[in-house]
Amino acid sequence: MTRGKTTFGAVVERAVPTMVIVGVLLAWELFVRLRGIAPIYLPPPSTIAVYLFRMLADGSIEFNLGVTLLRIFAGFAVAALCGVTLGVLMGMSRIIARIADPWIAALYPLPKIALIPLLVIWLGTGEVYKIVISAITAFFPIVISTYAGIRQTDHGLIKAAQDLGANRRQIQLKIVVPAAIPSIFAGLHLGMGVTVILVVAAEMIGSSSQSGMGFLLIQSGQVMETEKVFASLVVLAVVGALIIKLQQWIDRKVAPWTAYRDEH
Amino acid sequence: MDVVVEELTQVWPGRHGASVVALDRFSHRFASRRFTCLLGPSGCGKSTLVQIVGGLETATSGHVRIADPARPGLSRPLGADSVMVWQNLNLFPWRSVLDNVAFGLEMQGVSKSERHERARALLASVGLGGFEWHLPGQLSGGMRQRVALARALIMERPIMLMDEPFGALDAQTKIVMQEELLRVFDQTHKTIIFVTHAIEEAILLGDEVVVMTARPGRIKEVLAVDLPRPRSLEMVNSKAFGALFDRAFHLIREEVMTSMAQQTMALEAR
Description:
The complex is a heterodimer. By secondary structure, chain A is an all-alpha fold. Chain A is built from 10 helices and no strands. By secondary structure, chain B is of the alpha/beta class. Chain B has one domain: Rossmann fold, CATH 3.40.50. Chain B has 8 helices and 10 strands. Chain B has helices at residues 46-53, 97-101, 103-107, 112-125, 141-153, 171-188, 199-205, 239-269; strands at residues 2-12, 20-30, 35-39, 61-68, 71-76, 82-85, 159-163, 191-196, 208-212, 219-224. The A-B interface holds A 154, 156-157, 159-167, 170, 174-175, 178-179, 181, 255-257, 259-261, 263-264 and B 54-56, 79, 83-84, 86, 88, 90, 92-95, 103-104, 106-108, 135-138, 151, 155.
């Protein structure tokens, strides 16, 4: 009896969210059709789907998405490399931390979009500009989380390693850095999030390359092709969700112990 | 190797300029290949003492010497001959059970195949064969305790310092681990300094029970435990055990009262 009930409950729990999504789309469709709203303001989901498939068929989604993803990963890679390196160095050397601290404190709260005019003057509107603006933005959460993780290492683990004969360098490499990995990953998650935002924004503002999802959005908007705007948004939302899933999968592969952390 | 502690004093700088005396001129000779228990109320400086002996804390004043009676001229640096088993274990959560146990050998530069082989053998001897690739977080409290024990044993150091290692275990697991430790002691005859606040545990395990006073920690009395070895849990019911228990209980009761009064006063002073 009880078991049957829980199975039923589990089915409901799985089915209801999907039903809500279908319900919202259906209401949207009916609302637009019954009220006769012009697709230029709000196209119905069915039309958006048609446009989406058309854009997939003519390759415009694939091309622009591919370009955007390349820029995201390039910017993220630069930010991750520099951020983790500096964060680890700051955690290990008090002098480096002292030097870097005022710069981070001053530059971190600055909205990075405000740097766009300056970067356009210096770098033009090519690829370098988009990678630099996204890398600068992602750099800060990564370096801050890494530094915090290195500093918060459990002192008991360091003492235990010291007792087992580890020297200073071994303690840093074998204890402090691995202990900071969950924190570093949290920074990388935040960094990836802002990279996506900044790359798409940079593609929208003064991009000379005429490519990328940001460009596709702004171009479709300017000629009032609202269906294409929605189709592009759907693609960005799905890709964003996939990137998050991918990161969670990598976390579990690289740092499986974090799943058991609370049991200690 | 004897552990000779002379006039050891540890003062912690406290808040508002008031400093706390954790240990006050503590002197004792911990005899080689003997099992000594340090028994005292919480906050009496027992943990501080073993950490100083292990070379992991620096005393405010006083000396600790590791002396070999066979070679009287020899003096060894602190920490080189001892290994610690911690109250909260301090296992490395990202390392497999095998790599936790092999950690000390890895630091010495022992090759992977050799250190894994030795760690594997040691794990098997403490009943953890088959769990080599588990993470510490996947194990039960008692199993984690065995990993910590194996990680210390692999160092093959003559002195083992144990800081309330079974304090966090449930009653049944604690009994099993005490038997395990007695077995290890009978086989290896290491010099063990074992910190505890459990009277029964101190008498069951130790050759000698050093009863400490409440803060500041001094020696109140040293009880010799002349129960035969190998020890077993049944001895708890013997007459000799009962007499020792009564004596220790009487001593510790006063100190716990003092300790509680100190804590109340500290709270009221705030």
